[in-house]
Amino acid sequence: MLSLAILILFIPVSLFFLFFFGVYRFIITIILKIKHGKNFYGLLSGADTFHVVGKSSNVVTFSCLMFRCGKDTSSEEFYETCKAIILKASVLKRLQALFCRSFGYPYLVKHEWDIEKDCIGKMKTLECSQKRIDKQQLYTLLNYYCNAPMPKNGKAPFHMLIGTQPVSWKNDDWNYYPVMFRVHHAVADGVSLLRMMVALTTDKLEASKEPLNSFKHEKGSLFVNKQFKRFIDGLERIKMLFLIICLHPSLLVTYFTYKAKDTNILYNTSLARQTLLGVYSEKSTEYVEKIKRIREKLPGTAFPTILIAAFSASLSDYFKKNCVQPPQYITIAIPINVNAAKLRYLRSEDVTIKDLDLSNSYSLVLVRVPIAIGNEVKSEFPVNNQVVSRLRLLNKEFDIIKHSFEYPLVLTDIIPWVPHMHHIGTSLGIMTYDGRLHVGVNVDKALISDQNDVQDITDDIFKYLKILEKEVEAFCNGDLNLSIK
C-alpha cells in the first residue's frame, strides 16, 4: 500500500523530471554533435554510466589468461602472436574511443589509439633460479599490475600485459605463459568480453570474395533491416520510459527503506584502493562435477547458489578468526546478465569481430548471505550441517528475488576478478572453462591487509564444496533431518 500511495503521488513529479531531463539531454547531444562532428559516438546510457563514476582505477576489470604452447616457442614468438590477436580488436569502436564528460553527462568520442604502443605491453621479468617462475611469483606480478594505473594517465580503454617468462603452471611438457587483460568496465561487461575473446581467436577478418555487385543486390534489404531495427529500438525506449515511470517510486521506497545497512569488518566506506588477490584454478573437472551432482540431488538449486553457499562458509571462517561477534548476514551484489546463458552454446562461427557489439547489459541483485553459525540446538544454522543449511537459506533468498584457436597456442585457464566500485571492497569472480572451475577473490587492503587471508578464503570455497557434497549425500540418504526448499 505504501508503494501504491507513493506511485500515485510521484507519477506527476516523475513525468515532469523525465520531460525536463529528456529535453536537457537532447540539447546536450546536439551541442556535442556540433562540437565533435563525426567523432562524436554518443552519450553513455544504461549500465555504461554506472562505470564512469569516480576514479577510472576503480572500474577496471581484469583477468588472467593462461596459454599453453610448445617448449620450442620462444617468449618473443608468444608475444608477437598475442599482439597479432589483440591488434584485430582495433576495428571495435569502443576500443578506439575516449571517455569524456560535459554538462554533467559522460560520452564517447573517437580517438585513434595506437593499440600496439598505448595498449599492449610486456610483463616485467623476475629473477628466478630456474627457467620458469613459480605460481607465487606469478601472483605477485598479478597483484602488482592489478593496482597499477592504466596507460595514458588512466585514459586508455584497455591494457594487455603479455608474460615473457613461462610459469610452472602444470607438471607436463608444455610451456604456460600468462596474459593479463585489463579493461575499463564502461567498455563492456564480462559476457561481451568473452564474446570478443572468441571472435579475436577465430576471426581472420578476411576480405569478402563475393563479387562487388552483390552489395548492390543486398542494399535494399539492408536498408529495410536498418529501418526495422530503428522501429524496434523506438518501441524498446517507449517500454523503458513506461517502466521508469511506474517503478521509480518503488525504487525510492526500496532505496531509503529496505536498502541493506551492513556493519561488519568487510564493509568500509573508506577504502585504500589497493587490492589483494586470491587465486584458485582447478586442474581437473572435480569441483564442477561435484556441483553437478549436488544439483541432481537437489532439483531447483542453481549453480551459483551452491558456490555462494561455499563462499559463505569460507567467509564465516574468516569472521570467526578476526572479530568477536560475526554478523548473522551480510549483503552481496550479484550481477545478472540474461545473455550469459547463451555463452554455453556459443560457437566460434557464431561471432565475428565486425559484428561484435561491446556493451554493458546487466542488472545488480542484492542478496543476503548467511554468515554466523549458532551452537544452540534450535539455531537457524545448526553447526553439524552448516553448509547445507546455508544452501537452504540461500535458496529462499533467490526464490524471493575449447575453443578453436588458429594459432600455436591453447587457452587453458581464465581467472576473473571483479573491480571495486562504489565502496565495494570485496569481490568474487567465478568462471567455468573447459569443464573446470576458476575462482578469483580480490579484497581491498583497508579490509584485509594480509594476502594469505585472501588466499585462505579462496581455497576454503573448494574445501566447503567438498563438505557440501557430503552433507547433501547424507541428507538424501536420510541421515540429516533438514528441510531444503
Automatic annotation (TrEMBL):
Keyword Secreted: no
Entry's transmembrane regions: 6-28
Superkingdom field: Eukaryota
Record-level GO cellular component terms: plasma membrane
Listed GO MF terms: O-acyltransferase activity
Keyword DNA damage: no
One record GO biological process: triglyceride biosynthetic process
Pfam families per UniProt: WS_DGAT_C (PF06974)
Domain O-acyltransferase WSD1 C-terminal per the UniProt entry, residue ranges: 411-463
InterPro entries, A to Z: O-acyltransferase_WSD1-like, O-acyltransferase_WSD1_C
Keyword line: Membrane, Transmembrane, Transmembrane helix
Protein name: O-acyltransferase WSD1 C-terminal domain-containing protein
